Amino acid sequence: MKTINPHHPSPKQPRFSKAWFRHANTIPHHLSPITLLLIITSCGGNEKAFDATGTFEATETTVYAEQSGTLLTLSVNEGDTIGQDQEAALIDTTQTWLKIQQLTANKQVYQSQKPDSERQIAATRQQLAKARQEEQRYRELVADGAAPSKMLDDATSQVKVLQKQLDAQVSTLNTQLETLNSQLATADVQIQQLRDMLRKCHVTAPTKGTVLEKYVERGEFVAAGKPLFKVADIQNMYLRAYVTSAQLQTVKLGQQVKVFADYGGQQKKQYDGTITWISSRSEFTPKTILTDDERADLVYAVKIAVRNDGYIKIGMYGEVSFE
After folding, report:
1. Which of 1, 34, 36, 251 is least enclosed, having the fewest CB within 10 Å?
2. 234 and 58 in contact (C-beta within 8 Å)?
3. What is the CA radius of gyration of the chain?
4. SS3 of 203, please?
5. Residues 138-194 pLDDT 10s
6. Which has the closest alpha carbon to 46: 294, 298, 284?
């Protein structure tokens, strides 16, 4: 007869802990086989195949309307996959476009009002040049004694008057030109603001993922700040689990672990996971979470990145083994 070592069970036998074998030695031999089976089942079933539990979650992003207006198009539905920067909706842009056209016309008006400085001061420049010639001629005549000094004084005075007139004209024209340039720059800024508003009327997805919820329908009036839809990257998910302080010495960032998605009815699927975050603060154990030490009141949250193959759903229960 083949002897079976109880410490090395066959594949068909249940695996029991050492504590059960110590307890089995104390079981009275007069108990019936059925009673012994119940004791074996209760002792062997207390071992856990996991170190922590939690729920699966994904990075969710809610897309809001940045402008107010009628929603002309909405091209996404719940369950659709959308790419990053892909346009998902369009808000009415008519009023914004009309304002851009108005400011563009105003710029043309400002541009046409710019003075031609050289032409406007050309006559004064010519008069000033003529007066300087006269001043030089009288200076030579006075030096030769052929003309009285009063004529030189009058010529010099005329040069000074014309010079002041020229300076005043240049100053006025420069001021007018600067004012018009400022108005043009202001119009350019306003047009850029309107173009930014026009761009924001085209609602795009900030990240790739799957549309989880849609909050509005085509044809509705939406105000700035109203949520339009929610998108999440369900290909890269996380298991948020909780560990006790005693388990912290066995976990670290970047650690490779085993993750099990629990479908209920003892149906589980294994995935490879990586610890990407460990909370620096403790919190009270959530009521729906089991820990290795069920007496623990304070636990630490950890996030474990898992590559989803399409079977993991948000909110699904999961288990993790750190070994």
Report:
1. 1
2. yes
3. 43
4. strand
5. 888 888 888 888 888 988 999 999 999 999 999 999 999 999 999 999 999 999 999
6. 294
Q: Residues 182, 184, 188, 190: is their CA dihedral positive or negative?
A: positive
Residues 211-259 pLDDT 10s: 999 999 999 999 999 999 999 999 999 999 999 888 888 899 999 999 9
Tell me how far apart the alpha carbons of residues 73 and 76 are, in angstroms, rounded to a whole number. Answer: 9
Q: Which structure tokens are listed for 160?
A: 């000074």
Return d(Cα 110, Cα 92) in angstroms, integer: 30
Are the CB atoms for 53 and 299 separated by under 8 Å? no
Place of tokens 């004791």: 39
Selection from 205, 235, 219 nearest residue 308 by Cα: 235
Crossing angle for the helix pair 117-144 and 149-200, to the nearest 10 degrees? 160
CA distance readout (Å), 62 to 59, 232, 275, 298: 10, 9, 26, 32
Answer yes or no: are the C-beta atoms of 89 and 69 closer than 8 Å.
Answer: no
Given a contact cutoff of 8 angstroms between Cβ atoms, the answer to whether 223 and 65 are in contact is yes
DSSP string, 74-142: E---TT-EE-TT-EEEEE--HHHHHHHHHHHHHHHHHHHT---HHHHHHHHHHHHHHHHHHHHHHHHHH
Cβ burial 231-248 (10 Å sphere, 16+ → b, else e): bbbbbebbbbbbbbeebe
**Cβ-based neighbours of 110, under 8 Å, separated by 6 or more:** 180, 183, 184, 187
| Cα–Cα distance for residue pair 40/188, rounded to 1 Å | 84
Q: Are 302 and 240 a contacting pair, CB within 8 Å?
A: yes
